[in-house]
Amino acid sequence: MAAQAPSQLWQWFCQELSSMVPAWLKTVLTGGPHVLTLHLSQTATALKKTRSGYLAPETLLTDATETNAGPLTVDLYLPEHHFLKREIEAPAPAFKNMAQLVRLDMMRRTPFQPNDVHWTVSEPVAQGPKARATQWLIKRSDAEQLRAHLKTIGVHAQSIRVDTDLAKTPVARFQTQTNGGWQKWLNLGLAAAVVMAFAVVLIFPAFQDQRNLNQVENQIADLRRQAIGLRGDLEALRQAEQDRTALVDTVINKTVFAETLREMTIALPDDVWISDLSFQPNRIVVNGNSDSSAAELVLRVANNRLFENPRLTGPVSRTTSGQERFEMTLDLRPSR
User: Fold this and answer.
1) Domains and CATH numbers, the chain
2) Using one digit for the tens of pLDDT, what is the confidence trace for 168-189?
3) Which of 51, 131, 183, 187 fits a disulfide with 92 by CB distance 3.0 to 4.6 angstroms?
4) How far apart are CA 302 and CA 299, in angstroms?
């Protein structure tokens, strides 16, 4: 049994996966009728809708009461007692041509000919040098009688299967009237149109958002170009302001410098020689030589109206000629 389990489990998985696909979608894609499953049970009391089809009592096969579900096309799952179950055992190599082996064994061990019955056989299970397979049979006459009865109550059986067979392979499969090829392609076209419409509904907002995003990006690019131009204009205005300020400072400082130099000339005695002068708007630094004392020079400059806080800001040294070398800083009075 271990060798058969993977195949049966796979078929069961495929069956369950197929049951999750809506039947109407299968109908659209295949162009065939809307096929449901119909299981029969001794415990069921009435026709009941399930996830994948219908569950009905076994009396449905004998009662003449029409179903209220309307015309149905179904795969009919019958309990085991409606079939003949046979176990076929043979050497494992003989199952390489399983169909011929089953036919020969059926003709030799049963009163039926292959054309008298509908049948199916399971995958063989190896048991040492031999293998065993299960065959299910139903007489063609019995199957046609069941189909004819079901048709009178609005149920069309597309196939007959064994309810307990895990592989769910059909014992009998009947010819069914399917939609024409043009209708199948029409269904596919309609389904494609629905999918495209749904895709448009989902994708169009994305395209719209992308277009709006492109517009915003273009606006941002324009604003950046304008900002670059405005930045150039701003730099030009700043340079003009700096030039204006420099011009004003030059005019003002020139006047202050001239007045400061004149007052410095008045304040310093004739024996003082200036070698270096540094002018700032609020102070002046003087380097030079004096025949008299540098300290007396500071006291003399302190009496001038333009200067305040005169001070020696460097060392006083004496030259070879006897003069004192000095550095003096004077603050300019603000109310000059």
Assistant:
1) 5-179 (3.30.420), 268-332 (3.30.1360)
2) 788 998 875 554 566 667 777 7
3) 131
4) 5
